[in-house]
Design brief:
Rossmann fold, 6-stranded parallel β-sheet
C-alpha cells in the first residue's frame, strides 16, 4: 500500500475511533489477572475508564469513583467486566453474561436478550422516576400558586421498567428512597453514597456564625428548593444565606429571583463552587447549617459534602440522608416551616450547636466514605455470589 494511502487509512481509523469515543458507543473491558470465562455487563458510565487516572477528576461527581469501584469489585471476584454507557441504545450482547448491572435505561431493553441465567441487578441512584417527576411538577405548581411564576422542569426522568425487569437492586439512599421502589417486592440492598471530599473537623465560633446558612446544590433550583429558601430569607433580614450552585445556568429561575439572588443585603450568591477551593473552605468555616428542601433525591451528595464539612443539616425527608439527632428533617418544606426552623436552630446554645456539628461530621466520616462504599458493595457481591 502506498504510504499516502496508509496515512489516509490510519487517519480514517483515528477519526472513526474518536467519533465512537465521542458517542461513547464502544465498550470498555476490564479483566482479572487469571483468565476467566465469567462475564459481567455494566451499563453505567465509561469515561472513568477512558481517561488516564492522573487526569481523571474524581471530584466532579461521586459516580466517577463509584462506577470504577463497582467494576473493580467484580474483577476482584474473578469476572471479566464489559462497561457501556447507560444511554447506549445500540449495544447488543455478543457473549454470555452471568451478571447484568444497569442504572436506569438499559434494563428492560437488554434483560430479555440476556436470558434467565443472567442475574439482573438495577443500581438505583435516585428515587423512582414516577415519584421524582410528580414531586418536581408539584413544586413548580406550588411556585405558580405562590408567586404566579411558571418555570420549566429541569429534573424529569424518562420512564423505565428497570425495577420490574431486575432480579434485585442496589440502592443509594435511605428508607425514603427505598420506599419509592418497595411496591416492586424486589430485594433492595442499600449502599451508602461515597463522597468527593473529606475535611478535618473545624472548630467554629458559633457566636458569630449561628445566623449564617448555606444552600448548596446542583441543577434544578426549584426541584432542590432554592425558591423556598430565597423566599424564607427575604423575610429574615437579620439572617444570612450563601447560595452555591449553578444558578446562572437556569436563566428563567435567575430572572424570576433576580432581586433575592443579587439585590438582597442578606443573601450572597456565589454560583458554582469547587468544594476543594479556599472559597468553599471560607464558606463552611463561616456557616452554621445547610438548608436543603429538595423534593426528590437518591442520596443527596451536596448534603453528604456538608456533613463532612461539619454543617448542621436542615433537610427534607426526600433528600435521602439520615440526620439522626444532629440535624432537622423538614416535614412540609414550606416557606413558613423553613423560617421557623432557621430561627429555632439559631436560638440553640453554642454547646448544642457544637455537638450537632461534630456529630454530623462524625456520621459522615463513618457512613459516607469511599472505604465504606467499597466495603458495602463487596458485601453485596459476596451475598449475591453465595446464592
Amino acid at each position: 500500500m502506498h504510504l499516502l494511502d496508509m496515512a489516509i487509512g490510519a487517519l480514517k481509523s483515528d477519526v472513526i475511533a474518536t467519533y465512537k469515543r465521542l458517542l461513547h458507543l464502544d465498550i470498555v473491558t476490564l479483566t482479572p489477572d487469571t483468565k476467566s470465562d465469567k462475564n459481567v455487563l455494566l451499563s453505567y458510565i465509561t469515561h472513568p475508564f477512558r481517561v488516564a487516572q492522573q487526569s481523571l477528576d474524581f471530584n466532579s461527581h461521586t459516580n466517577v469513583w463509584e462506577c470504577q469501584q463497582i467494576a473493580k469489585t467484580w474483577v476482584k471476584h474473578g469476572y471479566n467486566v464489559d462497561i457501556i454507557d447507560w444511554y447506549n441504545k445500540s449495544f447488543l450482547p455478543k457473549k454470555e453474561y452471568s451478571i447484568f448491572i444497569d442504572i436506569h435505561s438499559n434494563m428492560e431493553r437488554l434483560a430479555p436478550i440476556l436470558g434467565e441465567n443472567c442475574k439482573k441487578i438495577l443500581h438505583i441512584t435516585g428515587a423512582h422516576w414516577q415519584f421524582q417527576n410528580r414531586a418536581e411538577m408539584e413544586r413548580l405548581s406550588d411556585l405558580k400558586s405562590r408567586r404566579g411564576i411558571k418555570l420549566k422542569p429541569r429534573r424529569q426522568v424518562p420512564p423505565s421498567l428497570g425495577i420490574e425487569y431486575a432480579d434485585c437492586a442496589t440502592i443509594l439512599g435511605n428508607e425514603f428512597t427505598q420506599g419509592t421502589f418497595a411496591y416492586s417486592g424486589k430485594p433492595l440492598y442499600p449502599i451508602p453514597l461515597s463522597t468527593t471530599v473529606q475535611f478535618p473537623y473545624y472548630e467554629k465560633n458559633f457566636d458569630e456564625i449561628k445566623k449564617n446558612f448555606l444552600w448548596f446544590g446542583s441543577s434544578g433550583m426549584v426541584h432542590k428548593g432554592l425558591d423556598i429558601v430565597l423566599e424564607a430569607f427575604s423575610e429574615l433580614p437579620d439572617y444570612h444565606l450563601t447560595v452555591c450552585g449553578p444558578v446562572n445556568r437556569e436563566t428563567d429561575f435567575s430572572k424570576a429571583y433576580f432581586k433575592e439572588l443579587y439585590r438582597s443585603r442578606n443573601i450572597r450568591t456565589l454560583g458554582f463552587i469547587d468544594v476543594r477551593s479556599e472559597q468553599f473552605l471560607d464558606v463552611i468555616m463561616n456557616t452554621n447549617a445547610l438548608i436543603y428542601p429538595s423534593c426528590s433525591e437518591g442520596q443527596a451528595g451536596s448534603v453528604i459534602t456538608c456533613l463532612h464539612a461539619g454543617l448542621i443539616p436542615i433537610v427534607s425527608y426526600e433528600s435521602g440522608v439520615d440526620v439522626d439527632d444532629f440535624g432537622i428533617i423538614l416535614q412540609k418544606s414550606s416557606v413558613n416551616e423553613v423560617i421557623e426552623l432557621i430561627k429555632t436552630l439559631s436560638q440553640k446554645p453554642n454547646k448544642e450547636l457544637r455537638r450537632m456539628s461534630k456529630s454530623a461530621w462524625l456520621y459522615a466520616q463513618t457512613h459516607h466514605t469511599r472505604e465504606k462504599f467499597a466495603e458495602c458493595y463487596n458485601t453485596f457481591v459476596n451475598n449475591i455470589l453465595s446464592k
